[in-house]
Amino acid sequence: xxxxxxxxxxxxxxxxxxxxxxxxxxxxxxxxxxxxxxxxxxxxxxxxxxxxxxxxxxxxxxxxxxxxxxxxxxxxxxxxxxxxxxxxxxxxxxxxxxxxxxxxxxxxxxxxxxxxxxxxxxxxxxxxxxxxxxxxxxxxxxxxxxxxxxxxxxxxxxxxxxxxxxxxxxxxxxxxxxxxxxxxxxxxxxxxxxxxxxxxxxxxxxxxxxxxxxxxxxxxxxxxxxxxxxxxxxxxxxxxxxxxxxxxxxxxxxxxxxxxxxxxxxxxxxxxxxxxxxxxxxxxxxxxxxxxxxxxxxxxxxxxxxxxxxxxxxxxxxxxxxxxxxxxxxxxxxxxxxxxxxxxxxxxxxxxxxxxxxxxxxxxxxxxxxxxxxxxxxxxxxxxxxxxxxxxxxxxxxxxxxxxxxxxxxxxxxxxxxxxxxxxxxxxxxxxxxxxxxxxxxxxxxxxxxxxxxxxxxxxxxxxxxxxxxxxxxxxxxxxxxxxxxxxxxxxxxxxxxxxxxxxxxxxxxxxxxxxxxxxxxxxxxxxxxxxxxxxxxxxxxxxxxxxxxxxxxxxxxxxxxxxx
Length: 565
Known about the structure:
The chain is α/β, with parallel strands linked by helices and 565 residues long. Helix 9 runs parallel beside helix 11. The protein is 36% helix and 20% strand. The chain is globular, with a radius of gyration of 24 Å. Strands 2-1-3-4-6-7 form a six-stranded mixed sheet, sandwiched between helices. The protein has a six-stranded mixed sheet with strand order 17-18-19-20-22-25, with helices on both faces. The protein has a four-stranded antiparallel sheet with strand order 9-10-15-16. Strand 18 (303-308), helix 9 and strand 19 form a beta-alpha-beta unit. The chain contains 19 helices and 25 strands.
């Protein structure tokens, strides 16, 4: 079928629907809701319209004349714009996704499909949305599309006794009362707003949106008090414990420019009181500890797993350097397999554009950041005494996708979306991709992947050799599955032989053309881009950081081939 996706943004769920419906043989195009939809739909003339993430209503002249499906992140009968926010705030353990027929009343149409999903107790809204909710949404969308294509299925009305309309969840509903709310309540409020819109709070002489929330099991203090910092995050006391908050966003001043999220310590700047302790924790935390740490290391037999979790998948200069130091430590351990990743959410999206935008000299910070992530990629590529695995529990894009290719094997969870390209940010790219990507998929396919700039599903990535293994697990079970498989690989009979073979191959490749030559060529192009104030990268970066709405749908989303690359 010819399917048109109508969306407010080409977000993670829209990308996944786009990629996976294409895998199923449909012709899929996208129209962003930034202009008159009626004219755009008439021009596309699709067989079916699907709205994976739409904040505005589809016009009556569209839904009354064409079949339109709305993806709602809630079970049958649930209505309202803050469905998932309320579910997490209220501590729901089970939720769902419903595909509805578009009608005049929001979320009131007949049901094409509905699929339940769990809500993990320790994950934030954005993490859950990209994982459990996205899994259920894909199952519901494919079921609804198949039912529509059959021509024999009639969508069913929502049972009146199941209807529950939830109001918009505003800041008054999200407000934290530090003198009263216990840790569990604070965490639910933070997690229900972690990526957007954050929880508005006033402290240290300013107003800030708090983003992200993680429990702390040891530190204690006066409720609301700033207790410690760690890797850019803040720890604040609650009435019965403490929580870690990784990011802050200043409240926008009336008439002032838009603000954006930054690591909390960086956002506070000079407002951070002197004497706040830096609370260090070891890489290998004891199993009983419940505290926040962006990088952790554990061993499972002869396999080491170096897990990292950076908000939004962005990796600043400091985060890259800390991860490289942890990687070097892991190399001192007596293991035969080393896994990089293995967490349940984002693997990496490359350099940290928000931190770069906030720097006094964004061009120089761009340069420092790209060199720091290059150092990490090179360290992985030149590891020849053991096998390395990049384990992607969540999406990866740009330099993060290329970083994964530095490992000997790439494993990813089914449902992961890869964006192995840089073009949409106006960058040539680095992370030694000119060596690793053609080695994985061939020169011609590497060219198409980077030029087409389209998302790739996990199944398609496996088909073209971008990914070596797809793991069909739930998000919650992915870390344990990775640890089990890595432990088995470490003791497999052929592993040591493979280590010897890869060392010999690396030596042959180095003799043919050294890694330093690939890196120098990539960095030369990147340096030229960063140093030119008029280069499109700078305007594209600012637009991305400030979340500027595009004026029109990007052309490459309307020229969809069934399989990118």
